[in-house]
Amino acid sequence: MQINRSILRRSYANIGDYVALTKPRVMSLVVFTALVGLMVAPGGIDPFTGVVALLCIAAGAGAAAALNMWYDADIDAVMARTAIRPIPSGRVSRSEALVFGLMLGTCAVLALGALLNMAAAALLAFTIFFYVVVYTMWLKRRTPQNIVIGGAAGALPPVIGWAAVTGNVGLEPLSLFLIIFLWTPAHFWALSLNLAGEYARAGVPMLPVVAGKTETKRQIFLYSVILVPISLLPCALGFAGAIYGAAAAMLGATMIFLAWHVRRSHDREWRPARRLFAFSMLYLVLLFAVLLMNAAPYAQSH
After folding, report:
1. What's the structural domain count of the chain?
2. Where are the beta strands (DSSP E) in the chain?
3. Are 160 and 182 found together in one domain?
4. What is the CA angle 34-38-41, rounded to 5?
5. Were 144 and a residue from 21, 102, 210, 295 both cysteine, which residue would form a disulfide, CB within 3.0 to 4.6 Å?
6. Same structural domain for residues 113 and 45?
7. Could you tell me if residue 6 is inside a domain?
8. Do 190 and 300 fall into the same domain?
9. What is the rounded CA–CA span in Å between residue 279 and residue 259?
10. Is 151 in contact with 180 (CB distance < 8 Å)?
11. Which residue windows are transmembrane per the record (predicted)?
């Protein structure tokens, strides 16, 4: 019995390591924004379509994360924030992560195409490719605009969700794409302000490393300001109501207020950037949650 318990414990540890490769916290946000895209799409959604779409999108996000960790294992080993990940800590080999990511991504795309439609499957495949090849392999180590351009991958899940229901893409899901796309730089640069030293040691040209903290703070504030009118596009396009509009305005004003505090803070102050980073997560969750509630009548009536 002791031997069997030892084997069982080791098996669970391995499962946990592979789950960690998928970046579960990031995946949860991806799945949530995809769910909003599913639910607000016109025509409604049956339970089978919704479950299949979300499982495939989650698997695709997990595959992209695993392939990102496979390629970035050398960088992850240098940075304290990522050194405990499965590959640099030695719990999973790079080759195992590569095979796992490729298999998971392939299964996700094929299942989505076979069970739902090719438009959603093609978008999922493109998202994985963009995140792994364009962002991770090409942009991340070459340009301080890596997170700006690469953020397109993280902004596509609600578009995939919409396409899973309708089989096409319109202005409505593209407005959701723009919201996440413009939210990403302020969110991630707020984190990178306090990690500039680690990124410099790893050789990653994040904006605070290349352009300095003052310029990074300026751009964080600029993106936060631009985000507010873009967040009101769902109202302008008619698939969100006044409640969403009021919530978007209030959340946007708070985002600008915190970004302004970051801009005026001294370089050695870490709390303003940390507050903005924490709120930016809450911002996106609340914004999409209110959209989900306020857009339900629209979805049912089309």
Report:
1. 2
2. none
3. no
4. 130
5. 210
6. yes
7. no
8. yes
9. 10
10. yes
11. 26-45, 51-71, 92-112, 118-139, 146-165, 177-199, 220-240, 246-263, 275-296
User: Quick one: pLDDT at residue 46?
Assistant: 86
Total residue length of the chain: 302
Q: What percent of the chain has pLDDT over 70?
A: 93
Over the range 135-159, which residues count as b (16 or more CB within 10 Å of their CB) and which as e?
bbeebbeebbebbbebbbbbbbbbb
d(CA 60, CA 186): 25
pTM recorded for the entire structure: 0.92
Distance CA 115, CA 53 (A): 9
CATH number for position 54: 1.10.357.140
CA distance 18 to 153: 22
243 is a domain residue: yes
Over residues 86-103, the mean pLDDT reads 94
* Max intra-chain CA distance, the chain: 65
Name the residue range of residue 30's domain: 14-166
Does 172 score more than 70 pLDDT?
yes
Place of tokens 């609600």: 158
Cα(50)–Cα(34) distance, rounded to whole angstroms? 10
8 A C-beta contact, residue 17 and residue 92? yes
Closest CA to 28 of 2, 50, 58, 4: 58
Alpha carbons 170 and 166: distance in angstroms, whole number:
10
Least confident range of 54-58, 65-69, 200-204: 200-204
The answer on pLDDT for 67 being more than 60 is yes
pLDDT at 10: 39
H-run or E-run covering 9: helix 2-21
Q: What is the pLDDT of residue 12?
A: 35
